[in-house]
Specification:
The chain is an alpha/beta fold. It contains 13 helices and eleven strands. The chain folds into two domains: about 200 residues, 3-Layer(aba) Sandwich (Rossmann fold), CATH 3.40.50.300; about 90 residues, Orthogonal Bundle (Helicase, Ruva Protein, domain 3), CATH 1.10.8.80. Helices cover about 45% and strands about 15% of the residues.
Length: about 325
């Protein structure tokens, strides 16, 4: 495997977090990991913290097409996937592609869309294709959904069920910027206009090579596969957890750990890769027992990790 692919993609994170999105290195890195691992990311935080800016900047630096959907209660599945119309000029029906046919799709406030619309989007995310009127249309490759939701405002929302939350490889927040950074933003204003002129620093071929490297070139040992299994099993047997990490969740952790290894210029996974990403890839998959819904799931996972022996090489 050519670990230069990891270095070039890691440079994007460094450039963006240094010059355009200071203090946002963690969500940027997690978004790149989701892209490399073939998954999607849910950013759960209050409005106004730079989620849209992050998505636009990442798309521009990667040289990928970008689309955006603002979810509302009257949003239809066809508003995302597209619809078939009759073209009078050509005297035939043709399919008009929706915004989902972009490499990076920002879905703002996904929990404001009705369940039927959410399901249509999540099906596209899972299958990487759209079927309309008996015809199947492949989505672009690579394909990354960056969905957002506001956890503090629930009026007029349709919360994602646990089974649909499980479709997201990673869930994270943005967080408030550091004091000095926020003062600078207040003083000089939004950088949204500036990032639209960002030039790509990698091409699609490099991104595809990175995705292929994660899938085929990064080594996960049998001992580390066992380590991931023991983490999943520990959540399934925990007294406060009703439903623990699924097999899909364990696979997601393995793929995310491989992507993290690539970004660190390695073609093999270390236990540190797994520990670093357990909370962001697994906390949203846990279904707590009645009475314990408000418990800090990331903290619970961190506590579990301390009780599981780290495999030795």
């Amino acid at each position: 495997m050519d670990i230069k692919q990891g270095h070039s993609l890691n440079r994007i994170i460094t450039e963006l977090s240094t010059h355009h999105l200071p203090g946002k290195e963690t969500p940027l890195k997690l978004a790149v990991i989701a892209l490399l691992a073939g998954g999607h990311i849910l950013i759960e935080d209050i409005p106004g913290l730079g989620k849209t800016t992050l998505a636009i900047a990442l798309a521009n630096y990667l040289g990928l097409s970008f689309g955006r959907v603002q979810c509302t209660s009257d949003l239809l599945p066809s508003d995302i996937t597209g619809l078939t119309i009759f073209d009078r000029n050509e005297n035939r029906f043709r399919f008009v592609k929706g915004p989902v046919f972009n490499n990076i799709l920002l879905v703002d406030e996904i929990n404001r869309a009705m369940p039927k619309t959410q399901s249509a989007l999540l099906e596209a995310m899972e299958e990487q294709r759209v079927t309309a009127d008996g015809e199947t249309y492949p989505l672009p490759d690579p394909f990354l959904v960056i969905a957002t939701q506001n956890p503090s405002e629930q009026v007029g929302t349709y919360p994602l069920p646990e089974s649909q939350m499980d479709r997201f490889l990673i869930r994270t927040g943005m967080g408030y910027p550091a004091e000095e950074i926020e003062k600078s933003i207040i003083r000089y204003g939004s950088i949204r206009d500036d990032i639209r002129s960002i030039k790509p620093i990698v091409d699609k071929a490099e991104i595809s090579a990175g995705i292929k490297a994660v899938k085929e070139g990064v080594y996960l040992s049998e001992k580390l596969a066992d380590y991931i299994y023991r983490i999943a099993a520990a959540t399934r047997n925990h007294p406060l957890i009703q439903t623990g990490i699924s097999t899909r969740g364990a696979i997601s952790l393995a793929e995310a750990a491989k992507a993290n290894a690539l970004l660190n210029d390695r073609d093999f996974v270390l236990p540190e890769d797994i520990k670093e990403l357990t909370a962001s890839t697994e906390a949203h998959r846990l279904l707590m027992r009645p009475g314990y819904e408000s418990i800090d799931r990331e903290g619970l996972l961190s506590e579990l990790l301390t009780s599981i022996q780290i495999p030795r090489s």
